[in-house]
Amino acid sequence: MNTNHSVGIVERQYFTFAETTPMQLDSGETLSPITLAYETYGTLNAERSNAILICHALSGDAHAAGFSPDEKLGWWDDCIGPGKAFDTTKYFVICSNVLGGCQGSTGPGSPNPQTGKPYGLDFPVITVRDMVRAQQHLIDHLGIAKLLAVAGGSMGGMQVLQWTASYPERVRAALPLATTARHSPMLIAFSEVGRQAIYADPNWNQGNYYDGARPNTGLALARMIGHITYLSEESMHQKFGRRLEARERFGFDFETDFAIESYLHHKGSRFTERFDANTYLYVTKAMDYFDLANGHGNLMISFARCASIMYLVVSFTSDWLYPTYHSKEMVSALTGIGADVTYCNLQSTWGHDAFLLEVETMTRLISDFLDRVVAHHGINL
User: Fold this and answer.
1) Alpha carbon distance 369, 292 (integer Å)
2) pLDDT confidence of residue 256
């Protein structure tokens, strides 16, 4: 394990709240108690003004940087650490597993205090706004009145946008990356096909599978479907082409022939080792429900209180999951309210995953933007 240019070994922490006063959810239901798993990197300064919240995507968790005790590398370690985009010699970086998650935060696999058994489908429906509402309690617990920045890609970017809409007074800067203000019908369709794959697995058992066999076949298939949308046609050509896997010629059967097939099977199988099928159902549904303009008619109204926040919006030319027009719609609304917006549509062949893979470009963009935010607000690092 090489910890050079790393935050080193990181211990997961836990914060429990809503023990006596349940948290109200958008569905009208309440939840109590709630635990969030989280990690922190770097040091909070005396003024508590250098905190950055990182929000993870669908398959992510609180372990964003460094090494876990079992030597697992954080999912955004390329960008979080000494001298990296989110420089932990300057900033205090926080990442928590979302409400509804399965990596230490309260979710459908957690014990229901009324029964002592996992919630399963008795867990209430959650929204991205509920996730952010829970994160706000964590930020309060850490004694941080105002975040220097909130950053994240994909579903993490949705949380970033919700933070600025719900708590604009608590955010100085926002970095929504490769994301959207609302799912298109195509995205909802992909989500539903993944959920149907889980429902069709006989082991799913209406969500009551925790004492027996898990619906791993359905979950793996859902992950395979989702992972295709994270890539681009060009990246598939470059990485796999029509290369055969462990064969010299076509087998003319239903065995795995192509390298891309083997890759997807591997991704699906590995996903089942660390993720919960019910969490996949709940979190993808939260993404589908997400619509920042809901109840307002247009995005400008949703962003009306956000004019003082500085934004860095990034999209990627090959991202067909959240194409460029999604980001341009956000930028247009933010420009309309007079917000300070930097927008970059980056050339990349990596598809949706580019926000994780274009490390050098993202490091330069994020570092320069954060330097500008610090200078604008006269923050002492």
Assistant:
1) 24
2) 61
Same domain, 98 and 147: yes
pLDDT given for residue 260 in this prediction:
85
352 is catalytic: yes
Give catalytic status of residue 154 as yes or no: yes
- Options 56, 63, 183, 352, the catalytic residue: 352
Residue 78 domain boundaries? 13-183+291-377
Looking at the fold, whether 179 and 195 belong to one and the same domain comes out as no
Query: Residue 339: what residue type?
Result: A
Task: Say yes or no: 244 and 141 in one domain.
Answer: no
Is residue 353 flagged as an active site residue?
no
Which entry of 6, 154, 191, 235 is annotated as an active-site residue? 154
pLDDT the model gives residue 257: 75
Domain count of the chain? Answer: 2
Rounded CA gap, 236 and 240, in Å?
5
Q: Residues 297-338: pLDDT tens digits?
A: 789 999 999 999 999 999 999 999 999 999 999 999 999 999
Question: Which one of the listed residues 130, 201, 319, 353 is annotated catalytic?
Answer: 319
CATH of the domain at 200: 1.10.1740.110
Decide which of 236 and 156 is more confident.
Answer: 156
pTM above 0.70, yes or no: yes
Give CA–CA dist 336/106, Å, rounded. Answer: 38
In a domain, 226, yes or no: yes
Q: Is residue 2 domain-resident? A: no
Phi, psi of 57 (to 5 degrees): -85, -175
Q: 25 pLDDT exceeds 80? A: yes
Q: What are phi and psi of 103, to 5 degrees?
A: -120, 50
